[in-house]
Design brief:
The protein is mostly helical. The protein contains 13 helices and 6 strands.
Length: 281
């Protein structure tokens, strides 16, 4: 069946978008305390006490927009992602080039963290302490959750340098982030995806450019699109493609082919052009 798609972005448009994404990442880092912080106590406030707060609204918006644009929030607005990109850049400037770890834990561990620390304990509490739905946008008080300089510095060092050094680029996002796990399902159904729309020459530049550690070349040549639910729609693979063979493109979800096999990866990170920058455990 013929699929209908909107006009894809390519070439110079993608290069402009790539620069814009880096700018937004820095803004996300600067303003993370005001906009990203309320999402952390969301499950505690809503699932535990039935309170709809600013964090809950933010999470709902992130979920709905992910169904359309993929994990756009993760790639363009997350402060933890911005910290890791900064640390990766600094390590490379120091000529320290850690390998990105490939492991099955990338899929399993974030889901375990989400269930164990956020969903299960709060639901168990709610079952024993029935709550009535209420709205309190400014509850809990945002500034009460902001860490001091010591904890903030440790977070920067651990989440940034240490995790990036031992797990590779965006190591926290891939192995530990519960919000990333929360957005995996809507991301798998996203209407906009990175798709193969031109001739691939097998240079693997797209995989080298990916900050989230996806073998983009493998996916676009196997499935004609990126199916990995860790994809954050950062568009660095598209801007890095010398042949403009990749596009961030919409396809009607009713015409989208989704198979379980799309999420069962084999023979990734094995090509001679990229295998020296990844390590499997």
């Amino acid at each position: 069946m013929r699929t209908s798609a909107c006009q894809p972005l390519q070439g110079e448009a993608f290069r402009f978008v790539n620069v814009s994404r880096r700018t937004w990442s820095l803004l996300a880092l600067a303003f993370s305390s005001k906009w990203s912080q309320p999402s952390s106590p969301y499950f505690h406030a809503f699932l535990k006490h039935g309170i709809i707060n600013a964090g809950g609204i933010l999470v709902l918006l992130a979920f709905l927009t992910t169904l359309i644009f993929g994990r756009f929030f993760c790639g363009w607005a997350c402060h933890f992602g911005a910290i890791q990109e900064l640390c990766w850049w600094l390590l490379n400037k120091l000529n320290i080039k850690p390998k990105t770890v490939d492991s099955k834990l990338v899929t399993i561990l974030p889901i375990i963290i989400l269930l164990n620390f956020y969903i299960v304990p709060n639901l168990l509490y709610a079952f024993d302490h029935p709550w009535e739905l209420s709205i309190a946008i400014d509850s809990p008080e945002i500034w009460a959750f902001l860490p001091g300089w010591i904890i903030g510095t440790l977070t920067f060092l651990v989440d940034g340098f240490l995790i990036v050094y031992f797990l590779g680029r965006k190591g926290f996002c891939r192995f530990l982030c519960p919000w990333g796990a929360f957005l995996k399902l809507p991301n798998s159904l996203a209407m906009f995806k990175v798709r193969k729309t031109g001739n691939c020459t097998g240079c693997h530049e797209c995989t080298k450019q990916c900050p989230i550690g996806i073998d983009v070349s493998y996916e676009i040549n196997t499935y004609q699109k990126v199916t990995n639910t860790n994809c954050t729609s950062c568009l660095m693979c598209t801007s890095g493609c010398p042949e403009n063979a990749l596009s961030y493109q919409f396809i009607n979800p009713l015409n989208e082919e989704v198979k379980l096999s799309h999420f069962l990866k084999r023979d990734q990170f094995s090509h001679i052009y990229i295998r020296d920058i990844f390590t499997s455990i």
